[in-house]
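Hi everyone, sorry if this is the wrong subforum. Our group has a chain we'd like a structural model of before ordering constructs, and none of us has done structure prediction before. Sequence below.
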Amino acid sequence: MLTLSRDLKIVVRRLLNSPGFALTAVLMLALGIGATTAIFSIVEAVLLRPLPFKEPDRLMVLGDVLQGAQVGGNGEAGVTVPDIRNYTRDTHSFTSLGGYQGAGFELSGVGEPAIVNATRMSGGVLPALGVEPLMGRVFSQAEDDQHQQVVVLSYSTWQNRFQADANILGKKILLDRKPYVVIGVMPRNFEFPLQPGHLNRSELWVPISFTKGELEPSSGANWSYSMVGRLKPGVTEAQAVSDAEGVAKETIRNYPAFMAGLSMHPVVRPLHEETVESARPLVRTLFLAVTVVLLIACANLAGLLLVRAIRNRREIAVRLALGASSSALLRQMVLESLVLSVTGGVSGLLLAWIALRVGIKLLPETLPRINEIGLDWQVVVFALALAVLTGVVCGLAPAFAAIRTNVNDTLKEGGRTGTAGGHARLRSALVVGEIAVAMVLLAASGLLLRSFEKMRQVDLGYRPDHTLVAAYNLPREKYGTQSAVNEFNHELERRMQELPGVQSAGVTSFLPAAGNNSNSVFVAEGYVPPKDSGLELATIVQIEGDYLQAMGVPLVRGRYLTADDKEGSQLVVVVNRKLAEHAWPGQDPIGKRIRIGTPAMQTPWALVVGEVEDVKENSPDVEDKKQYYTTVSQAEAMAGSLASPTDLNGNGGYIALRTAMAPEQMQNALRTTVRQIDAQLPLTQVQTMEHAISETEAPRRFNTALISSFAAIAVLLAILGIYSVIAFSVALRVQEMAIRMALGSQRVGIVGLVIGSGVKLALFGCAIGLAGAWAAAHTLQTFLFGVQALDPLTLGLAAIALLLLTIAACLLPARRAASVELSQALRAE
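Answer:
Right subforum, don't worry. Here is the predicted structure as tokens:
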């Protein structure tokens, strides 16, 4: 221990005598370890940390895998209302099982009315999660079955909207203007469902209490619900699937006639797997990228320590000659590396904390559990362990190289300089490795930038400029009939059209970029689908007013829908180009007919009166879908036998205004117009359409920005590595350069010689980096749009950029070499 203490004092004193070296090494490691720690905190919170529920490995989701419907992916859907009732009642593998569905409620009676995110749950969900409320209790299955209007609040809602009222239990709040009794408050960290992002967290939970419309046979094809349950002790996933299969077969037997073409089987998998599934590729890629940056920082540290060892080789030789043991020297050099790396690690923790505080709000909405990301003790231990490992690994190679110094040759060498051949090869190998990994990151950055630009150039099928949009939802308590809904919508359209600066206005059930499309089965007159092709699905959009004109959706042929397309008149629709080309290839769709449902169903035909361009429903990089538009007034008649007396059309959706002025200037006017009709009705998502599109691009923009940042750091570190190697090489070869010039070499030739040394290293590094880019192509391709992972232009430009930066890094050492004073350099011999 005394020896270690003495060695530590020696190391600290040596580092204090070399502040430039110590500061450079610590900053490089702080950057590498800090970035790695920040990303690891995301990996740990999103992928590795157990879910914040009791025995989370026993929590399972139960869903359906469909055949015969265009579900996409692996065919996995959610569950239906009959599924929830049957699985809950008839399966025996779960201690508790329940269904749930996201919902939005108008919360009023406290402060300004607001639309809040909520979750409707059957009575088995909260007991399955095993989380006790902070205050009060949760609702029971009996309360769910009896349609009791009770509510459980989230901690943040209790704090922010009710000022942490200690007497909140038993009080009534208004949800969609219906009174609900508060019976509980959940703990601070409780969140369910574990939705991605910041914006979709539930603020409260209510019994699912299925409505009459949800219990009708026509709603049996609605797979928009989910289920979660806790496995009984000793029951496996496979046993739970087998148990559920018998229930599913009975459910299928009771399908209504229009679902006869469907088949399905249940799937059971861990809740944790479902939570992290969409985020896993992004998080893994980020962790890989930041690991590459750390490797470059480590290579630079090893290079700096090696240079330091070479500069001190005469001191080392003297100490060895005086009897110092190799093990003592090795210990001191590794200890020096550890001091630097641990200091860099602590500094990196500070940088990671700052990065997370500043950047957590910039994370894409595709990541779940964002609010759990932070520097907990596991992340701190990881950072410190990483610092120690970095110090040992980076210190060993230079230390071994140093203690292998030939004492006699070094002492004979005196003040002469030389190339230190073995050391030079090691330094060059480190730099080549840095260039290689920087090449991979730079190529990835270039590909993502090109991909993002390609996505920005996609034709959206509408004009987002000068368009203001907003969401609204009419509560059933006041708007419980279709006539009340229609009266509100017609008055809203009339008043919007009268606003100064408004060119066209309308409302819609579906807004591009909102992510709320609804697939509907349809039949096209004269179209015979291929055998075993499954059901024909399209997005059906209900509109009123001049919605298509407000969104700037181009008319290909025919006409738009108008106010004359109302209840009692000829049923009409407008189809998009993709549906028209699919159903009637090479034909004019105007005058053709289309109807909702399957061929076996007797639903009324609607006449196609117009064709419009394909509208991108979500992100611009998602494939176009078949779409058709109908008016809200004719929606019930279009449904035919599928219609229900409880149906309400147009009681919620989106407003769209096309304005002559900047759309931001119309926000207050729109809010005022809505308040004049209904003073309590809140508008949400009031924004320009361009901003709404920007939100759909956020995940790809985030990927591009982050990988580009890592690439910039990697390239900077690699160029610093080249500079340090070339500069030190020039310092060792001062006499060689002087002799060359004394023998007739021109200064230009010396510059070329030095730059050529750097370019040679860069060429080797780029070649290896291109091989690495080829190896990573499959992983990277999943993040690209419109660009191949091995795009020759991008890879070529990345290599050229690195070569040019290498030349720039070599210029200063080359000028120093060419400006050597011959007399002084030769006299130094």
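For your construct planning: The longest strand covers residues 94-108. Confidence is low (pLDDT under 50) at residues 414-421.
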